[in-house]
Amino acid sequence: MNRRAFAHRMSIAAVGALTLSVLGGSGFAAALDDPYGDEEVAVSVDIAEVEGPGALSMTVDGTTAALAETPGTPTTRLFSGSLPTVTVTDTRAPEDIPEGAFWYVLGSITDFSGDAAQPDIISADSFGWAPVLTEGDPGSVSAGDEVEPGEGFVDPEILSVAYDSAEIAPEGSWSANAGLTLKTGADVAPGKYTAQLTLSLFE
Description:
18% of the residues lie in helices and 33% in strands. The chain has 203 residues and is α+β, with helices and mostly antiparallel strands. It has a single domain (56-202), classed as Immunoglobulin-like.
């Protein structure tokens, strides 16, 4: 058999195998039933405890928050939404934390810019939030204070340690989210606006 004939036969065999696996549904399923019995394989894994100094870290369950209009007044318009959950995790041993250290999470926001050259909405005068602790001992970590629109949204806390970090480190994890509110005048220019809210963990 020459190489061309051999290659041709192999290509036919390959296509045939493909056709059988796609079209031969009942035959393929029957082939999966082993008439001679079954054998099981136990799969295991040993996961070692993490060694080292651990770390203080923060995660946010999402990268966007959309605000939708809610009832306002004849002179104001209100838009509300929810911040994705913010979680702070501390895996450090108490002896690895500097004495007197404490951590906190701040929020800062840019002004709202329109997509069609509308005048910016000044966040410090129009934006607010209401943080809520959703996971963790409220005796050791607390949510930040509510900031009403117009009170001045200038780096407020969403989460903070009530005591020093070393005292609460064994608890491990705390979470919070916040209701978001934007308040504008009734004459605000229509259109889509966006702002960048930054959450920062400090110790």
